Amino acid sequence: GVTPKIAPSMLSSDFANLASEAARMLNDGADWLHMDIMGRHFVPNLTIGVPVIQSLRKHTKAYLDCHLMVTNPLDYVEPLRKAGASGFTFHIETSKDNWPELVQRIKSGGMMPGVALRPGTPVEEIYPLVEAENPVELVLVMTVEPGFGGQKFMPEMMDKVRLLRQKYPSLNIEVDGGLGPSTIDTAASAGANCIVAGSSVFGAPEPAQVISLLRKSVEK
Ligand code: DX5
Ligand code: ZN
User: Fold this and answer.
1) Torsion angles phi and psi, residue 126, rounded to 5
2) Is the ipTM of this complex over 0.95?
3) For binding a divalent metal cation, which residues are annotated in this chain's numbering (predicted)?
4) What is the CATH number of the domain that holds 54?
5) Percent of the chain clearing pLDDT 90 (strictly above)
């Protein structure tokens, strides 16, 4: 079966205090730390890169759930492995031609391979990656257009989550964008088990309460 993974998005943290922000989230009950690696050719923003993952790894043993929003994810497999990434989730829109090689290299680097899809990408496009001989182990359904934290959750993306959960009972299904106390039940009942949450967790007076609420909803 699938287990809940609550993954605060460090994009909403105080980057000048990244190590203590990470420690605070883990202390508040986070399972994973979600790391948004963005390049301006894929999204209209520029965030963290490999050196930041490398620096953070020296301060924590936590699972670093890396979400690659770059046009050339293959170029980052080896650098991110060396830097200490745990999960490597690339976007299908960037990797239609070379995903088998990409997945194989992520796995042989000891990381967990995942694939993400933008809101406009049909879910059918990722079925071959889940059914491959060397499959992805996580599918990230974007519930906002990638690029920025603090956007509004798109409930219409739950059709994708429901279809995936029906087809693949033990797949890790992650949702990312606009998740918080008011949207978690929609996502959890559709079948998501990995929950990324940035502004709702970091903006809360008591992040531990939000993390625990997200977990309880997935466990229901
Ligand atoms: C958006 C990023 C998300 C973002 C989520 O492109 O992939 O991880 O940080 O932030 P919230 O939870 O604030 O929507
Ligand atoms: Zn993300």
Assistant:
1) -100, -5
2) yes
3) 34, 36, 67, 176
4) 3.20.20.70
5) 100
